[in-house]
Specification:
42% helix, 10% strand, 7 strands
Length: 356
Amino acid sequence: MPLTTLHLPYTGDYSLAASVALAAGAAFVAALRPEPGAGADVLDLALLLEGSWLTVGVRLDQPVPAGPVRARVLANPGQAIPDDLRTQLLRMLSLDTDGAGFAAVAAHDQVVAELRARHPGVRPVLFPTPYEAAARAIIGHQLPVRQAAAITARIMEAHGVAVQLDDQQLFAFPTPDQLAALPAVRGLAARKVEQLRVLGHAATGDGLSSARLRALPRAEALTKLQQLPGIGPFSAELVMLRGVGEPDAFPLTEKRLHRAMAAAYDLGDDPALLALERVAERWRPYRNWAGLLLRNFAAGPSPAKSSVPLDRQSENDILVNGSNRAQTAGKSLSRNVHSGSRQKGIPGQRADNSHH
């Protein structure tokens, strides 16, 4: 019996199943699973709420196609305020953006229109907080996926709050205070442990909050993030796109998207960034949403052959893109990711820890 039930409205079209399927392939969330005793597909999450840093166990579903998303609170050990959870879920599912105009924008671009028609209702799924997005970028820097997954799970099990949702125990990400006092972690370099401690201290105020970072000019927000040790230009964009949520941002460092655009719009093998930005202008104010469709569903040329093993592909190819390679690389991992869930399965990523 849920403690609280919230209904999450939205404008435009939306499919929880399609959005979660894409995010699960990219290792942002666990996949939908049949609800015990009911059979309907649900998404279970252990969420660390921004600001209060309380943990909530919540079950999401969309009982009626094209209807509101339902959030049932099944565990609330810290008595978190439901309105805080609603706000975070709306942002996390990209439902806080008015999507009513996306169809009209897509209609003026044949490539986006065709992708949207084939994949209706897809929106970005974000990490619960910019703080968690930054922490995962630090942990996963230059590590194989499986190794980063094991380390992240170890940290969550040792320092995160556990909640019970029916037959499974989920672990939330540690609070900033817990991360600021993080002891040595088996398998994680001392340098990264110190970077996580600094991040924990930085996140105890509101300087890294989603509201604060959204309120800043984008260039200023990116600069602020890059002041954190272990966060370079690529990781800073990741935090803004997948931690803060920027529906109209065009990522300047995401090469997979750039390759897909070059192929789809016949821009040549190595188009200038300015040419890509000109194409993206027609997607305003949904450049990030259109980019999500391009990077995940548009057929493009394969990148040049690389000597980097599959399980050390860049964050750009595993976390941001929704590449199916993430599923292949992490096939043996438990299917819960930033939700905290079942002890394993938080894939690592190769972030640009250097400031270059």
